[in-house]
Amino acid sequence: MEDFFLRAIIGGLGFALAAGPVGCFVVWRRMAYLGEAIAHAILLGIALGFLLEIEPMITVFVICFFFAYMLARIEQDQRISINVLLGSISHFALALGLLALAFMEHIRVDLISFLFGDILAIDSFELATIYTVAVIVCILVKWQWRNLLSITVNQDLAAVEGVPVEKTRLLLIMVLAMVIAIGMTIVGILLVIAMVIIPAAAARCLTRTPGQMVVVTTMIGCLAVVSGLYGSLIWDTPAGPSIIAVAGVIFFLANLIPFREK
Asked: How many domains does the chain have?
């Protein structure tokens, strides 16, 4: 097996491990639009990295954290529909990133690799970053598991029980931002949120408890990564979209299985 393909599999599995538990909460709390808004801001972080001549991954994390914090605050504004607000900010951030890169005429940028990922080009630094983030995400979710479940079931009841609702919610959004940032290199800006929510949506059809759903979500994500990469190798298709396509097939098959109790 070639080194680049082995790195791609290892990196993809690391991303699946991080996206599994976070994806469950994204599905439970219906945060897909929020994740998409953060993902679209990645291109602005890449442009900032080129402008400052530093590692783009660093500026991507900074921009993702900034947008996640701002969205968490703006989301509380009830004057505008949350879907309209997130949709507007999402595409505004993407447009800013595209414009910023367009003005940097001295830099040649492969937009396709940023938009749809280039998992086969993962290097050692990105691999280390992916697994560092995966470990941090798993630790944070395990540490705040009870509080995260409480605010997911009923925020008002959680507040009465003494759960710091706003802090826990902000932590979840920040963790989501971390997962999205590392997912850029795996499946790209436009597909990263799909890799977060599709395995979780499939697992929801096959499980009965939150713990089971996290485990099955992670397994589906890993299966999608390995199958998608081998499929792209056999049929010479783009790796990122191939991974998402496998996850989508698993999702549709899972919905055909009458597993959960009514």
From this structure: 1
Per residue in 154-205, pLDDT (tens digit) is: 989 999 999 999 999 999 999 999 999 999 989 999 999 999 999 999 999 9
Q: How far apart are CA 54 and CA 32, in angstroms?
A: 30
Residue 262 lies inside a defined structural domain of this protein = no
Enter the DSSP assignment of 41.
T
Token pair listed for 3: 């080194």
Domain limits for position 246: 3-256
- DSSP tag of 54: S
Is residue 80 predicted with pLDDT exceeding 90? no
Nearest to 193 by CA among 78, 62, 47, 64: 64
CATH number of the domain that residue 226 is part of: 1.10.3470.10
CB contact at 8 A, 72 and 169: yes
DSSP-derived secondary structure for 4-22: HHHHHHHHHHHHHHHHHHH
**Residue 261 domain flag:** no
